[in-house]
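Bench log. Compound arrived from synthesis this morning; before running ITC I wanted a structural hypothesis for how nicotinamide-adenine-dinucleotide sits in the protein. Inputs:
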Amino acid sequence: MKQVKVGIIGGGLMGRESASAFGRWFAFSDIAVQPVLLAVCDLDESVLEWYKKVNTIEQLTADYKELLQNKDIEVVYVAVPHNLHEQFYVDVLESGKDLIAEKPFGIDLFACQKIVDKIKETGRFVRCSSEFPFLPGPQRVIDYAKSGSLGKILEIKSGFHHSSDLNVDKPINWKRMIKFCGEIGVMGDLGMHAVHLPLRLGYNPISVYANLQNVVKERKNDKGELVPCDTWDNAILHTRIEKEGHVVPMALEMKRIAPSETNTWYIEIIGTKGGVRYSTKEPKTFWTFVMDGKAQKWCKEDLGFQSVLPTITGGIFEPGFPDCFMQMLGTYFAERDGTLGDRFHCATPEEALRSHQLFAAALVSSKHHQVVSLI
Ligand SMILES: NC(=O)c1ccc[n+]([C@@H]2O[C@H](COP(=O)([O-])OP(=O)(O)OC[C@H]3O[C@@H](n4cnc5c(N)ncnc54)[C@H](O)[C@@H]3O)[C@@H](O)[C@H]2O)c1
């Protein structure tokens, strides 16, 4: 396997998830390229300490510019708070390295546009993180939607729900503050997950009416003081797309306060001839709607492990979050290497930009209680 030297900037939750995926790369049974984790940057000493168990690491630093000066590193994965995206992504690109960039790809539309401009200027290979479509279920949804089995599309629902913020006593962190997370709040946090597959299927919103909620307005900081918790917790975007000359409603939901949900990613597409439905709540269940004579039926199928890239894992075993994240990283390196072919690829900078255009329009819609056009 061809080796590619990798660095991580931001070694927190997602940095560790990436390191873990790089560490079990041998689970891919047919991939031409292997990332080797060489360097990690984080401000937090205890975070860097964790990476000492990764035996390929040669550099641990608190200064990301020091990591970017490392000439051996070809690709950088960046997973830092949203207020740092623009500066860090631009600096990675200017240092001559390729980039795997965490969503939302800039704190707002303006930052995202700056990053996209820099990608065009430098010509570097960049993709945005969004892993759920790499589960076997969403892959089957894509095949079904493309097969023509839906007939005329009637409606689309796509979303991502969790309840991490349901506990009002949970202390505040950067994801609950506009200055770090962005004015788009939960849309920046969960929005790319909800829009990635619809955008890839060509379901581009032409208008949006947004219901945004800030349910918990104050939380305690690490000193026990109540401070403003000013980001949107939940967002329901009523969008409209145009498909084959007719209008289709598409509901996009992102919720950090969805009681009973942990990490529920779902999509449902209903048409006049068929329908398809998948949710990580039932991770190996794939639903299709069929009309059998006069009867209308939802059919349930158990899925196995088949994703985009083949692995050594048993075909009937069930996948989870680390698996789809690893698949996403695998396709990044395969696409960069020119060996992915026409298989499903990571979210592109253009898709990230379109997501930001939608979220910016949603802010306007919520402020004025109006439908906002995107064309
Ligand atoms: N793809 C996904 O499913 C997913 C899930 C969660 C978060 N994310 C995204 O990943 C990114 C990071 O989120 P997270 O949950 O890993 O956050 P986190 O808080 O767990 O980790 C962020 C890390 O960045 C470090 N950091 C902060 N400022 C820094 C600086 N100036 N230089 C170097 N390191 C610095 C922090 O010390 C921290 O360890 C965000 O963009 C977030 O939206 C993606």
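What the model suggests: The chain has two domains: 2-128, 133-309+347-373. The radius of gyration is 21 Å.
ITC booked for Thursday regardless.
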